[in-house]
Write a structure and sequence with these properties.
Blueprint lengths: L20 H9 L3 E5 L2 E6 L2 H9 L3 E2 L22 H9 L5 H6 L1 H18 L5 H18 L3 H15 L4 H23 L6 H6 L10 H31 L2 H9 L4 H11 L9 E3 L3 E3 L2 E3 L4 E4 L1 H4 L34 H18 L4 E2 L5 E3 L4 E3 L4 E2 L4
GO molecular function, one term: monooxygenase activity
Family: Belongs to the cytochrome P450 family.
Keywords: Heme, Iron, Metal-binding, Monooxygenase, Oxidoreductase
Length: about 400
């Protein structure tokens, strides 16, 4: 099944399952592209081989000074290289193992059913995005971090303000406000007892790395920005993919044991994470006939790498039975998203429970798409069920 004629197409714009035309052109021509973000030039690399290079080679740094991010905050390990990056990853490693995700599975199923109870009560025409795709990850992430619903809602609102900004000055101002609020939460958790991630960041057991208030805030903020909004959009996008490809939905209904591979295929196929975190070149690099100079910004295009035919045969076909391994949905290298196992669990449970609870669920109406800074996903997913 190609991306040319999916059911439930958006109101306007490109096919909802296609990578950007400009990114496709870079991949097809085996070149390096360029892009101005807030007036600052960035090199774009699209092929899987080039993405691996940029995310693994020490000549491309996450810590070097950049016009985009002039202030490197304590604990913001996304903007660090090893070994400093490793120090903070080790602090949170135990909370994001596959085993830790599996311990959450029962809670995730219960949370999914609670969301679907309200969807069912609302009746046909309900929108899956706010009531399920966004709410389910929020419930799980808040529980993981030890946030009250009110605390989680305030953080979500502040993050959306940042990702929705259209100029660099606003991004910086809103980011300062976000960090100030997160710092207040960290300081409050230091005075409380708890067995959740935020309490552990704010304290130190015997043998653990103690973090300052600013460091704990930076780690907390890195995790939220890397995983909160993007996971919500991933869940909604995966539901859209299944509901608009009836033959793939049917295959999964018939063979639910395919779910783990289906999640990997959805992560590979869906261009939700269109851009990776920028790196800064710290030594001149010649790549595909282009000189990337010291100080240049470089962005790995994860979704485009996931459509590289050198790695994924017939890459524009969505097939839940595909033996997909090594996709770039969560990045690559030492900066690969630490919350990947939680995200996979959320997608798995969200898809399985929707199909089990509503055997004849189907989309109704248009599906408008929401495109932010590097993220792409459905803004609405209205469904119906029962007799046509």
């Amino acid at each position: 099944m190609s991306t040319d004629t999916p059911a439930g197409t958006p109101q306007a714009g490109r096919c909802p399952f296609a990578i950007q035309d400009a990114h496709r052109a870079i991949l097809d021509s085996a070149t390096v592209g360029s892009f101005d973000l807030f007036g600052i030039k960035h090199w774009l690399v699209a092929a899987a081989e080039d993405v691996k290079l940029v995310t693994n080679d020490p000549r491309f740094s996450s810590a070097a000074p950049s016009e985009m991010l002039p202030d490197r905050r304590p604990g913001w390990f996304s903007g660090m290289d090893v070994p400093e990056h490793s120090r903070y990853r080790q602090k949170i490693a135990g909370d994001f193992t596959l085993r830790a995700a599996r311990r959450q599975e029962e809670f995730v199923f219960e949370a999914a059913d609670a969301c679907l109870d309200e969807i069912e009560a609302a009746g046909p025409g309900a929108d899956l995005v706010p009531g399920y795709a966004k709410r389910l990850p929020s419930l799980v992430i808040n529980a993981l971090y030890g946030l009250t619903p009110e605390e989680g809602a305030v953080l979500e609102t502040r993050m959306r303000g940042i990702t929705g900004s259209t100029d660099l000055d606003s991004v910086k101002t809103l980011t300062d406000d976000f960090f100030a609020h997160a710092l207040e939460l960290v300081r409050a958790k230091r005075d409380e007892r708890g067995d959740d991630l935020l309490h552990r960041l704010a304290s130190a057991e015997d043998g653990e790395i103690p973090l300052s208030d600013d460091e704990a805030t930076g780690v907390f903020a890195t995790l939220l920005f890397a995983g909160h909004d993007s996971v919500q959009q991933m869940v909604g996008y995966c539901l859209y993919a299944l509901l608009s490809h009836p033959e793939q939905e049917g295959a999964l209904r018939t063979r639910p044991e395919l779910i783990d591979g289906a999640v990997e295929e959805m992560l590979r196929f869906l261009p939700v994470n269109q851009m990776g975190v920028p790196r800064v070149c710290v030594a001149d690099v010649d790549l595909r006939g282009v000189r990337i100079s010291v100080g240049d910004n470089v962005i790995p295009l994860y979704s485009t790498a996931n459509r590289d035919p050198e790695v994924f045969p017939d890459p524009d076909t969505f097939d839940v039975s595909r033996p997909t391994e090594g996709n770039f949905a969560f990045g690559h290298g030492v900066h690969k998203c630490p919350g990947q196992h939680v995200a996979r669990l959320l997608i798995k449970v969200a898809c399985l429970r929707l199909l089990e609870r509503f055997p004849d669920v189907r989309l109704v109406g248009d599906v408008p798409m929401n495109e932010g800074l590097g993220l792409f996903s459905p803004a609405e997913l209205r469904i119906t069920w029962g007799a046509a």
